[in-house]
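In this section we walk through a basic example: taking a raw amino acid sequence and producing a predicted 3D structure, encoded as discrete structure tokens. The instruction is simple. Fold the sequence below.
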Amino acid sequence: INVGQYNVILSLKDNNNYEWSNGTIEDITLTYEIIQALNAWKTEPSLEDEWTYGEENAVAQLGEVLFGQINVKYYQGQNILNEMPQNAGEYKAIFTVLETENYTGLTKEIFFTINKAIVATPGAPNSKEYTGEWLTADVVENELYEIENVGGQEVGNYTVVYTLKDSANYKWGDYKDGDQ
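The resulting token sequence is shown next.
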């Protein structure tokens, strides 16, 4: 039964032997109203507020409501995402139950962060002795960063540049973004 006004008709089962207290035997119509129910969370939605890129994503717990179906949408700023975000960044989840004529709606926002994963900062390469040949630094390769290792043939200082391949989701162990 939905929100609205309804009638109940009362009739005497035996109007030859009984009458209403007002002395009549006619049917009596009573009107009652069903009003919109105030919805509530039985169990509120939940979501971890922080985790690190590359770890298993948190799982949104939808919770439970008195009436209706809970839906969740994810946002990065004003942009609606199609699914639970995977990349490092600041996000929010909005859990909603749409209002109907029978019950009120509900909304709960949860803000969460996926932190950048940490990449160990490469150590400085060891010095090399002059040989007259073209020399480059001995560096350790890693799938998370690119290395620019030009080197040289003359005595002097040379720069090795390490650049994160995915600086949106990773940061150096000393918490700097960008090149090392």
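Looking at the output, two observations stand out. The mean pLDDT is 92. DSSP finds no helices and 13 strands in the chain. In the next section we compare this with other chains.
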